[in-house]
Specification:
Helix content is 13%, strand content 33%. By secondary structure, it is mostly beta strands.
């Protein structure tokens, strides 16, 4: 199943894909099933029932609505750094034996088509294409062998990083939380449509059409299953929590000369079987929203 969160006028909506078409309803409609987050939190057959309810809903044109992050207000956005060996090497870090964990906040999230914004205080906006795993069942002290049972689906993230602010202090929080730098989408795909843990799927990032990152999800040091198990050992993961699983090598900061994103650029992150997340790049001083198809 595939679900998309969107806004039409002032109303929030949800759509499901059926035979290549998106069919959706907005809040206030008699059969509106609720937000994607509320459906995930409801558990059980809530998603499959919602898909059935949306099967006869009006067709939605992606160009006619405002796409939103699949989950705009998760309780937690847990990000993983240095989760591909080649990226650890290019960044000058020894590969850690334990995941490098940091947090993002909802205020940094944007959707497919929205501009990623380079702030006036820096010219070091970098791309990081990443797989997102979304929790569907409360997880606490979960064994790795059982952890994928707690993942309900997947999406894509571009963890836009302001590199000079990321390394102003040992903690990376400032450089990872500028407004309008966390692109999330374009939609949500349930786990049964994809290989377990998305193993073997290809992740590709393109800047202005040129491939800058290309790797297999299987190259992750800590797989989705390992991450859920490790994270649940020290925090309770709840339905709707978002895990951003790390980026492969090829980031702009590691290139010689560095390749940072500029006003007018377009960045695409594609994961086979899931889709393509596309965002234009704007400077803060010219950040009036535009959209891309």
């Amino acid at each position: 199943m595939r679900f998309m969160s969107y806004k039409s006028g002032r109303k929030f909506g949800i759509a499901a894909q059926r035979e290549g078409q998106w069919r959706g309803l907005t809040e206030g409609s008699s059969d509106y099933p609720g937000t994607l987050l509320s459906l995930i939190q409801a558990g059980g057959e809530a998603l499959s029932k919602a898909e059935a309810m949306l099967a006869d809903a009006p067709t939605i044109s992606l160009e006619a609505v405002e796409m939103l992050p699949p989950i705009a207000n998760p309780e937690k956005i847990v990000c993983v750094g240095l989760n591909y060996r080649d990226h650890s090497t290019e960044s000058g870090f020894k590969q850690p034996d334990f995941p490098t964990i940091f947090g993002r906040f909802n205020s940094s999230l944007i959707a497919h088509g929205d501009p990623m914004v380079r702030p006036e205080v820096s010219d070091q906006l970098d791309y990081e294409g990443e797989l997102v795993a979304i929790i569907g069942k409360t997880a606490r002290d979960v064994a790795e062998s059982d952890s994928l049972d707690h993942v309900i689906g997947y999406s894509i993230f571009n963890d836009g990083s302001i590199r000079d602010y990321q390394f102003k202090a040992p903690q990376w929080t400032p450089g990872k939380n500028f407004d309008d730098t966390g692109a999330f989408g374009p939609w949500f795909v349930t786990a049964e449509e994809l290989p377990a843990g998305c193993e073997g799927l290809r992740l590709t990032t393109r800047l202005n059409g040129q491939i800058v990152q290309d790797a297999s999800i299987s190259d992750m040091v800590f797989s989705v299953a390992k991450l859920v198990s490790i994270l649940s050992s020290f925090m309770t993961l709840v339905p709707g929590d978002v895990i951003v699983t790390g980026t492969p090598s090829g980031v702009g900061a590691a290139r010689k000369p560095p390749l940072f994103m500029r006003d007018g650029d377009v960045c695409e992150v594609e994961i086979e079987g899931i889709g393509k997340l596309v965002n234009p790049i704007h400077d803060r001083i010219s950040s009036a929203k535009s959209r891309v198809a």
